[in-house]
Amino acid sequence: MKTREHNSTLGTLYVVATPIGNLEDITLRALRVFKEVSLILCEDTRHSRVLLSHHGISTKTESYHARSNDAKMKGIAHRLEQGEDVALISDAGTPLVSDPGSPLLSYLKKEFGDDLTIVAIPGPSALTAALSIVPVPSGRFSFIGFVPHKKGRQTAIKAMREAEDSTVCYESSHRIVKLLAELTEWYPEAHVSIARELTKQFEEVLSGSPAELAALLAAKPEKQKGEFVVIVSKK
Questions:
Q1: For 126-233, CATH number?
Q2: For 168-200, what is each residue's pLDDT tens digit?
Q3: DSSP assignments along 92-117, one per residue
Q4: CA–CA–CA angle 190, 233, 100 (5° rounding)
Q5: Four-way CATH pick for 12-121: 2.30.30.240, 3.50.50.60, 3.50.30.30, 3.40.1010.10
Q6: Of 186, 183, 185, which is closest to residue 194 (Cα–Cα)?
């Protein structure tokens, strides 16, 4: 790990959770941090501006996302080195939980070592929101993020069948039907719960076998829309 003499002017990086839907799901601490930092790093500044404007936050924003390059990370490091406090957010939920941020934190840790203070401002997460209303057997589960789009997808799904505990994953509206079809083929006896559009107007939880849920979504295409947390358990 790279280290340097302690720099008392080094800024702080705040990793801040933001609402996954309902704009009221934001902590008082998060709002205070947004007002106090010099810069808010957003996955999409246009998307985040809706949240910030709703709460009267006028702090400068800048994009940081999965395709940001080394030059972007060097610029962020320079701001911290100049003593600026910076907040990192994603489009929704907790950064680094299947969201951009890990490369930046790794880069900053190599650059500043333990001199850099990184502070978590906890809050919303689609993962914990789903698990709070869809209890899994024995409370044990594995979280795999998004199921691989192509390479490794079949292996990941078959691993769900072999797992002793429940498996939780995220899936998009473009692939939820495909996932249910694959579960029907490779793990037909599974019990599946889908938490859809959490904290939003059309929030709902659907449960059943893969085949039952596939038939339901086929009959009601409007239920294929939105963002999904999928919980796969043994019956």
A1: 3.30.950.10
A2: 999 999 999 999 999 999 999 999 999 999 999
A3: SB-TTSSSS-HHHHHHHHHHHGGGSE
A4: 115
A5: 3.40.1010.10
A6: 183
The tokens of 39 are what? 């810069």
> What Å distances lie between residue 122 and 61, 95, 98, 125, CA to CA?
20, 10, 15, 9
Where in the chain are the domains? 12-121, 126-233
Reported as type and span, the H/E element at residue 194 is: strand 191-196
Amino acid code (one letter) for 169: C
Exposure of 96 by Cβ count < 10 A (0-12 exposed, 13-18 middle, 19+ buried)? middle
Question: Is the predicted pLDDT of residue 4 greater than 50, yes or no?
Answer: no
